[in-house]
Amino acid sequence: MLTKTDFLHYLETPLHLWAERHNRLEVQAPTPFQQRLFQQGQQVEDLAHEFLSTRGEGSELQRQVRLVDGQFEAWLDYLLYDSEAGVYDLYEVKSGTSLNKEHEYDLAFQALVCSANLPMRDYYLVLVNREYVRYGAIDRRQFFKLEKLNEKLKILREEVLVRRQHALETAQQKEPDGLQGCSAPDSCPCPTLCHPDLPQYPIYDLPRLGKKALELKAMGVTAIEDIPDAFPLSDTQRAYAELVMGGRPQIDIPGIRQQLAELEYPLYFLDYETVNPALPLFDGYHPYDLVVFQYSLHMLERPDAELQHYECLVLEADNPAPKLVNALVNVLGPHGSVMVWNRSFEERCNRTMAQQAPEYTDFLEGVNARLFDLMNIFSKHYYLHPDFHGSTSLKRVLPVLAPDLDYNQLEIQDGEQAMQAWWEVVFGELLPSKRFQKERALLAYCKQDTLAMVAIWRELAGL
After folding, report:
1. How far is it, in rounded angstroms, from Cα 344 to Cα 178?
2. By C-alpha distance, which of 77, 73, 67 is closest to 117?
């Protein structure tokens, strides 16, 4: 049997399907954060069941229906039988907010299996309505939106008929010879198959390489230094390849000085921690809105001043925005540059908090107007280093510029772990000692983020 999930693995990368069917996946056990995302998906599906139960008076709703078409199998989220018309409608529930190509192929596979078994009428994708705002209990009628895919599925029908047969043949191969692997080693579920003997500076470090990665791999090229001179690369990709082959960083000191000259004292280094649940936790929030529960702020009043630190962590099961902003307004003054890493994220956090605490709107808009994105020094190529491996994330840049600040020494080492820790403290049933430990870990992690920006800024300022 080839399942719908198998088919989607094939579309992702044929070698991933083969690995899955031959027990060659190297995926680790789900993290607590990933388990919570799965539980969130189950909550969305349970709410969708209540929503769909109200559709079609006198209709029969069936959940988790298994159908088979020859060697192809599909588990259907929901079938709604219209007894008067004698036809079925299919509803596939997704916890996302918008239709994508994978969804279309997902339903196209199901539609083929359905039509081989039942008189079908309509095919719907059930999505979360991003425009919904919670007030009181979640209104299931407003929380969801429907996308009717009948016409799109007609277009995909012949293609999916052919590709599902290819997928079946791929799954039945005894060896993976000739199967295409992926071009994303960091997230690959079977790196031993897709990316054996990956060099120190692989071609995947090149920015926005896309399908060119598969072309190079087909030529036997996996190292940047082995890319032929005649191979077509964009100017940005070629510049990065030359950087790696040169073995030295490229630093535009005048350009960096010009960027840093825009800064105005006092300097504030600001970082937020957030969760963004599908089901809004509090009134006034949309699905997937950022709920800001913590900040760390380092402040340097003047170049020779002592660095000061302020922080706030809200751990009550209530909207944290008013309390958090009230604490921030007392320590972040009306003048001076506010340093962040990835400006769009902090801007979004401030806009969301302004909606939740409108009395602070002017303050938060003022903060947004003063943001300085330290990441731009690297994303705009004022500072390039082979050991960034094509990334401008804080955790890629920091080990090169300030290796003494090591996240590996912390209990919480990334944003996903921070989200999970907050969730466990606020909504879990932790012993007081464990709760205290999680609280200390959250404070240490967020403080590390702003300390990291201070350290990187100092390195840049000292060039």
Report:
1. 42
2. 67
Average pLDDT, the chain: 95
What's this model's pTM, rounded to 2 decimal places? 0.93
- Look at residues 452, 336, 463 and name the one whose alpha carbon lies nearest to residue 399: 452
Residue 307 Cα to chain centre, angstroms:
33
Residues 6+ apart with CB under 8 A from 219: 228
For residue 408, which of 374, 381, 448 has the smallest C-alpha distance? Answer: 448
Domain 2-172 has CATH 3.40.50.170: no
Q: Which long-range contacts (CB under 8 A, 24 or more apart) does 429-435 make?
A: none
Residue 130 CA to residue 97 CA, distance in Å, equals 6
**3-class DSSP state of 187:** helix
Segments making up each domain of the chain, as ranges: 2-172, 258-461
* CATH architecture for segment(s) 258-461: 2-Layer Sandwich (3.30)
Task: For Cα atoms 267, 273, 276, give the angle at the middle one, nearest 5 degrees.
Answer: 140
Q: Does a cis peptide bond (omega within 30 degrees of 0) precede residue 266?
A: yes
pLDDT band at 344 (very low <50, low <70, confident <90, very high): very high
Euclidean distance between CA atoms 11 and 104, whole angstroms: 12
